[in-house]
Amino acid sequence: MSQLLPPSPDRPGENYFGAVAAVAWKDLTAELRSRELLSAMLIFAMLVILVFNFALELDKKSRETVTAGVLWVTFAFAGTLGLNRSMSVEKDRGCLDGLLLAPVDRSAIYFGKVISNLAFMLIVEVIVLPIYSVLYSVNLFNPGLLSVILLGSLGYVAVGTLLATMAVQTRTRDVLLPILLFPVVIPVLVSAVQASKGFLAGLEMSEIMPWLNLLIVYDVIFIAAAFMTFDYVVEE
Amino acid sequence: MSSQPRALIVLNLVSALLLAASYYASLVYAPLEAIMGAVQRVFYFHVATAWVGMIGFVVAAVAGIVYLWKKDLKWDEISLAAVEISLVFFFIAIVLGSIWARPIWGAWWTWEPRLTTAAILEMIYLAYLLLRQGIEDPEKRARFGAVYTLLGGISVPVTFVSIRVFRTIHPIVVAGANAEAQGGFSMAPAMLQTMLFAIFAFSVIFVTLFWHRMRLSALANRVEQLKLKVMQ
């Protein structure tokens, strides 16, 4: 089929990166029109921060030590919400079958979903950070912290997209994703929290570097592992 | 199919004898530890059960990879059997460790790398079983299970390293004395013999249980087939 048609932006059959971009673009356009997922993630993230405010009594002193933890728990919870939704939409309306019929490498679908999920997570984070800064008068605009958030979200989404694809195909799909995801993603949370804490406390780079290295290693290993196993997860 | 093969019956017997012998070795043969006293004797079974728990996890991950490669449901059964047995043994190891830690560290539990990793490993086993429960199609169940054991198998060492960056207080017995480890001790020859014997005994017990579990899944498959035959 794809040999008969010349590759074009509308028919990215031959071009791997074109296919990745097409899948991601499809998700982003759909989200731009409905705004279902982003609004749910955002409101949920705000609620988590609100709950933390009462649960931890975020006064000035405790804020310095727990800000990194509160932020990452918020991102992780909002992230699960988004991942589950983004994959169950594909499954419910039969879109996943359509995607699988497309004459592209299956991993292109995976990377496309990773990019769109990462975009959703980053958008939520970009909105939550200034709000948190204002509410608790902490300056979170630190290039180091932003790089940690990028690396941490990438690792989280890379594993999360793979596991969400599995979770939505099971009977217990509504509850399964966090149970599958959290034990596997603990290295990301540990090192992201520690690195964020380091940047917020203004520690030396040499003390933060081990955590950043760990994040990078995790990202590389798990993107590779998901790339290799995604085929088995969507096979019928 | 209905009765146990002779080799398995022998293995049952050998396992029981080895278990009894390693009870004797750890309670009587091994000398009393000078500082910690009798509670140190828990250590032999703690190491042996933790060893079996780790072995099972490796077996499950390897069997998962082989399944994805060969697509033979036999390998999925191996994976599941290994996870089920390891789940129990690892839990025993954690409980025994707590019994030791209470008098020595003064707490049942500390958030220390090995303990935390052990707890996360148990969570991965449980998540694996929950994942399988939610899938009807055996072939899909096997594929998803294999992918998850693979992810778990990669993430556990990374988790360990990530928590290791904090200082550890778990005794590193085999690698020799460690100044930071509270409750570490150097082993007398009889202690080392007892530990190695316990590890051997529990490895045999693992094999025995594994065989029983494989027979169980073979029998379950047969029941399933007979049911289908009756319904037709």
Structural description of this entry:
The complex is a heterodimer of chains A (236) and B (232). Chain A is built from 8 helices and no strands. By secondary structure, chain A is mainly α. Chain A is globular and about 55 Å long. In chain A, helix 3 (60-92) packs parallel to helix 6, helix 5 (106-136) packs across helix 6 (143-167) and helix 5 (106-136) packs across helix 8. Residues 1-5 of chain A have low confidence and may be disordered. In chain B, helix 3 runs antiparallel to helix 4. Chain B has helices at 6-29, 42-70, 73-105, 113-133, 138-164, 189-231. Residues 174-180 of chain B have low confidence and may be disordered.
Work out the helicity level of chain B: over 70%
Element pattern of chain B in H and E: HHHHHH
Q: How are helices and strands ordered from N to C of chain A?
A: HHHHHHHH
Rounded average pLDDT of chain B: 83
Mean pLDDT score of chain A: 86
Largest β-sheet summary of chain B: none
Q: Indicate how many domains the architecture of chain A comprises.
A: 1
Number of strands of chain B: 0
**Spatial gap, N to C terminus of chain B:** 24 Å
Supply the helix-strand structural class of chain B. mainly alpha
Q: Per the principal axes of the C-alpha atoms, what is the gross shape of chain B? A: globular
What separation lies between the terminal Cα atoms of chain A? 21 Å
Describe how the helices and strands are arranged.
The complex is a heterodimer of chains A (236) and B (232).
Chain A (H helix, E strand, L loop, with lengths): L15 H19 L1 H21 L3 H33 L2 H7 L4 H31 L6 H25 L5 H29 L3 H30 L2
Helix pairs in contact in A: 1-5, 2-3, 2-5, 3-5, 3-6, 3-7, 5-6, 5-8, 6-7, 6-8, 7-8
Chain B lengths: L5 H24 L12 H29 L2 H33 L7 H21 L4 H27 L24 H43 L1
